[in-house]
Design goal:
The protein has a domain at 3-194 and 315-342. It is built from 16 helices and four strands. The chain has helices spanning 3-33, 47-78, 83-92, 98-131, 139-170, 175-198, 211-224, 260-265, 268-283, 286-308, 312-316, 325-340, 344-365, 368-381, 390-396, 402-417; strands at 205-207, 231-234, 245-248, 255-259. α2 packs antiparallel against α4. The N and C termini lie far apart (67 Å).
Length: 418
């Protein structure tokens, strides 16, 4: 067995063991605390609600463990098991040009991956979400959503993959630099187009029609110096009882979107505070910072692919016999996450720091108690665990644990009141 093969297998096994261990820690921590509401939430969340959140988290963890094992098996089948070679050989029967055979290879792998994930997605939606009262989608709508998602992926992804493979084959040794420019242009285009062309394919959006609330939120936007193309309510209740709010788009297409379930669960003070938090991401330039970081990471990644695609061992030691731009891209897409997994705590830490900064901004613009109350209701209504394992949370969670976040805001309240 070649050295590269051994390193790859060791990384795959280490990643699987690490993630299963973290999941076991998370489950044990939740079970150990399921019968006692954390002190910060006593009187705000009942024992029954806390127990429901624990059971919901444990049910999702069970599927997560199965998904980890299944994804590892699929990865090894695609690579060392010869799956990429097998699919590439089957596609040769259609006598595509080399470019379009490469596109078909990448698209085919995405399609197979979606089909492999489908049973667990069905289980999550119609067993777990249904069991805990969150699912509101029908089998017909579920099927429609998945088919539409795949079609959108084809419409957007096929031209992108075709251009990148064309650059890999004909743009010289610095093809990866041109590919990076294409990738960044594609990312900015999709971000701009999402609110007006893509999101409406899946959900209905209507302008916020509560005049009192709209005026209040517009005053907040004016104080914060934020302009958008409007505030909209999304019919999230068609599919789920979960609630949320988000910004989308950029430039003239910036939109503020509230789930209808969120508006039903929070009062005006709390909605204003939640919006102030989202505005905090804008004012602290988190979106620009994350786009900049993504640009640097993608440039480094494509440069690495540019080097690896010239190394015969990259193919042969990982189960691929035919050297081509498509097999290089497909193999890279599979192998890279095996190693970047170990960097997850760094990205999670950066994201949590941004959340604290956005909370601080919201505390400057509104009463921190309103954001605390809104967050508590969202934790309750979404059945979010209040007692995550610290290591699991540090590895995976983009938001601070609920008790830590509430304590941070209460500290701001004490400081501001002093």
């Amino acid at each position: 067995m070649n050295q590269v093969t051994v390193i790859f297998l060791a990384a795959v096994l280490a990643g699987l063991v690490l993630q299963l261990w973290l999941a076991a820690r998370q489950a044990a921590h939740i079970i150990a605390h399921r019968d006692r509401v954390p002190p910060a939430f006593v009187g705000r969340i009942s024992g029954a609600e806390h127990a429901k959140a624990a059971s919901y988290s444990l049910a999702r963890l069970g599927v997560e463990r199965l998904d980890l094992v299944l994804s590892t098996v699929v990865l090894l089948v695609w690579t060392l098991g010869g799956g990429i070679d097998w699919l590439d050989a089957r596609l040769a029967w259609f006598a595509f040009t080399p470019l379009w055979q490469g596109v078909a290879l990448v698209v085919g792998m995405v399609l197979v991956g979606s089909l492999v994930d489908l049973p667990l997605s069905i289980w999550r939606t119609f067993r777990i979400e249904q069991r805990f009262g969150f699912n509101r989608t029908t089998p017909a709508e579920f099927a429609k959503d998945h088919l539409l998602s795949f079609l959108v992926t084809l419409v957007l992804g096929v031209p992108l993959v075709a251009v990148i493979l064309w650059l890999m084959g004909g743009a010289g040794s610095l093809w990866w630099l041109w590919a990076w420019l294409v990738w960044m242009g594609f990312t900015l285009f999709v971000t701009w187009a999402y609110p007006i062309w893509i999101a409406p394919l899946f959900n209905r959006f209507r302008p916020l029609d509560d005049d009192t609330l709209r005026e209040r939120l517009e005053n907040l936007l004016a104080r914060c110096g934020f302009r958008s193309s409007g505030m909209f309510v999304m019919d999230g209740s068609r599919r789920s009882a979960h609630g949320n709010a988000y910004f989308t788009g950029f430039g003239s297409n910036k939109r503020i979107v509230f789930y209808d379930t969120l508006l039903d669960g929070l009062d005006g003070d709390e909605i204003e505070a939640v919006l102030a938090h989202e505005l905090g991401h804008f004012k602290r330039r988190h979106i620009v910072k994350m786009l900049s970081l993504s640009a640097v990471v993608s440039l480094l990644g494509l440069a690495l692919l540019g080097w690896l695609s010239q190394q015969a061992w990259f193919y042969h030691d990982l189960g691929v016999s035919r050297i081509s731009p498509a097999t290089a891209l497909a193999l890279f897409m599979l192998v890279l996450p095996v190693f970047t997994l170990f960097l997850s705590p760094l990205s999670a830490r950066l994201s949590r720091r941004h959340e604290f900064e956005a909370d601080d901004y919201a505390a400057e613009q509104t009463d921190p108690r309103h954001l605390i109350n809104g967050l508590v209701k969202m934790y309750r209504d979404n059945a979010s665990t209040l007692t995550p394992d610290p290591l699991y949370s540090a590895f995976y969670h983009s938001h601070p644990p609920a008790p830590v976040r509430v304590a941070h805001l209460e500290g701001r309240l004490a400081t501001d009141g002093a």
